[in-house]
Specification:
The protein has about 150 residues and is of the alpha+beta class. It has eight helices and four strands; from the N terminus they run βααβααβααβαα. The longest helix is centred in the N-terminal third of the chain and has 11 residues. The two termini are about 15 Å apart. The structure holds inosine-5'-diphosphate (IDP) and magnesium ion. The site of inosine-5'-diphosphate has 9 residues, from loops.
Length: about 150
């Protein structure tokens, strides 16, 4: 069972797309185990996006992610990381397939609405960065046998 960190970025919240974006993951069959509405501090943003520190867009990326509230979530399931990323679509919304969050709702790479962990190692790191263990809920979903064999 994998867990992945998903963020509705500030543009998603400001545009009133929070429910739409959460619904995409929910309808796919991923199971939510944690959620909070928050505004990221510069320190948290720098830690979360530290891997991009040398990239030319780093400063604008940090400014963007701290510019307003976000919704941070942990979603669980077999292959949750890959499933969430395919639901998100390609990083650049213009290249993202129709039917994906970014392909349906976005127009620009610097306003691409959603973050999702990209590997099991980064998922563990990112989940721990945003959530304490006691903020994650272990629960049995009654529809599980209709989503998984
Ligand atoms: P991902 O979000 O699809 O995993 P990453 O390559 O990890 O994409 O980049 C992190 C974030 O940095 C992207 O979601 C996007 O917000 C931003 N970003 C990536 N590449 C560019 C760029 O070329 N210009 C501006 N922003 C970018
Ligand atoms: Mg990434």
């Amino acid at each position: 069972m994998e867990r992945t960190l998903i963020l509705v970025k500030p543009d998603g919240v400001q545009r009133g797309l929070t429910g739409e974006i959460i619904g995409r993951f929910e309808q796919r069959g991923l199971k939510m185990v944690g959620m909070k509405f928050m505004q990221m501090s510069p320190a948290l943003a720098e830690e979360h996006y530290g891997v991009h520190k040398e990239r030319p867009f780093y400063n604008s990326l940090v400014e963007y992610i701290i510019s307003g509230p976000i919704v941070a979530m942990v979603w669980e399931g077999k292959d949750a990381i890959a499933a969430a990323r395919s639901t998100m679509g390609a990083t650049n919304p213009v290249a993202a397939a129709p039917g994906t969050i970014r392909g349906d709702l976005g127009m620009e790479i610097g306003r691409n609405l959603v973050h999702g962990s990209d590997s099991p190692e980064n998922a563990v790191k990112e989940v721990n960065l945003f959530f304490n263990a006691d903020e994650l809920v272990d629960w049995a979903r009654t529809t599980d046998s209709w989503i998984r064999e």
